[in-house]
Amino acid sequence: MESCYGLVIILLLSTSCNAQIRNPFEAVQGCLQYDSVPGYNDTLEYFATDSFRHVGRTHNSKYIRVGMVGPTDGIIRFGKSRFPYGESVSEICLSGWSNQKTEVNRHTRSSNSEYINTPLKIQMTPNVLSKTRPMMFRLEVFDNGSVQLTKDGEKRPFLEFDDNHSRLDLDYIAFTKWNHELFYYYDCPLNMDSNSVDDTIVLRCSFA
Ligand SMILES: *[C@@H]1O[C@H](CO)[C@@H](O)[C@H](O)[C@H]1NC(C)=O
Ligand SMILES: *[C@@H]1O[C@H](CO)[C@@H](O)[C@H](O)[C@H]1NC(C)=O
Ligand SMILES: *[C@@H]1O[C@H](CO)[C@@H](O)[C@H](O)[C@H]1NC(C)=O
After folding, report:
1. Residues 173, 68: contact at Cβ < 8 Å?
2. What's the gap in Å between 106 CA and the centre of ligand 2?
3. Mutation test residue for ligand 3: of 41, 44, 107, the one with most atoms within 8 Å of CB
4. Burial letters for 144-173: b for 16+ Cβ neighbours within 10 Å, e otherwise?
5. Which residues form the Farnesoic acid O-methyl transferase domain (predicted)?
6. Any residues with Cβ below 6 Å from ligand 3, and which?
C-alpha cells in the first residue's frame, strides 16, 4: 500500500507532459529479419519452425509470432516439408488488392512456373499493412484444423480459416511477395502478443 501512495504523489507532482510516438519497430525486438524476399514464383526458403527459439504450444495448438512491413500483399506459406513441390501448403496473402482484402489459398505447386490455388477464404482486411510500421501477429494452428491470426495487443483473431477441417501443419514456413517490396520478421518473442492496449503513444512527463 505504501508504494501506491508514493506513486500517487509522484503523479500529482508531475507538471508537464507531452505525447510522443513510440518507435513502432520496438515491436520487432528479438525477431529475426528477412529482407531478401523471393518473388511469388521463385524458389522459396522454408524455415523449420521447430528450430525457432520462440515456438508456443498449448494442449491443442502450436503458434509463432511474425511481422511484416510493406504496402500490400504480405504472403506466407506454411506446411509440413521443406520442399513442398507436388503437395499443398497453406497460403495467406495478407491484404492483397491494394491492401484491402486477404485471401487464403490451398497452394499446390509442381514447379516454379506451375501452381494451383484453391481459395479457402477471402476477407476484407482494409489497410492492415503499412510501409512504416510492422504489422505483428500470432499465427496459431489448432489440432481441430482452425488457423487463427491475432494482431499484437488484440484478444480475438482478425482472420480465421480452415482447410476442409483437416489439421494443417506449421512445421515449415516461407515468405514471399507479389509486385511490391516488403520484408518480414520471424522467430519473434511470444511474450509481447498479450499487450491489451495499443500503446504506440506514450506520455513523457518531466517532474518539477
Ligand atoms: C478450433 O479450436 C479453436 C480453439 O479452441 C476454436 O477457437 C475454433 O473455433 C475451433 N474451430 C472449429 C472449426 O471448431
Ligand atoms: C474434404 O474432406 C473429406 C473427408 O475427409 C474428403 O472426402 C474430401 O475429399 C475433402 N474435400 C476436399 C476439397 O479436399
Ligand atoms: C506467377 O506465375 C503465374 C503463372 O505462371 C503468373 O500468372 C503470375 O503473374 C506470376 N506472378 C508473378 C508475381 O510473377
Report:
1. no
2. 13
3. 41
4. eebbbbbbbbeeebebbbbbeeeebbbbbb
5. 40-189
6. 39-41, 113, 178-179
The one-letter amino acid at 66: V
pLDDT tens-digit map of 80-116: 999 999 999 999 999 888 889 999 999 999 998 999 9
Q: Which amino acid is at 31?
A: C
Pairing of strands 135-142, 114-124: unpaired
Cα–Cα distance for residue pair 145/167, rounded to 1 Å: 4
| Nearest CA, atom 8, ligand 1 | 146
Residue 58, ligand 1, Cβ within 6 A:
no
Q: Please tell me the pTM assigned to this model.
A: 0.84
Query: Taking the mean position of all CA atoms in its chain, how far away is CA 117?
Result: 22
Q: 3-state SS string over 156-200?
A: CCCEEECECCECCCCCEEEEEECCCCCEEEECCCCHHHHCCCCCC
Please list, in sequence order, all residues whose beta carbon lies within 8 angstroms of the beta carbon of residue 48, skipping any fewer than 6 positions away. Answer: 82, 171, 172
Pocket test for ligand 1, best of 144, 147, 149, 162 (most atoms within 8 A of CB): 144
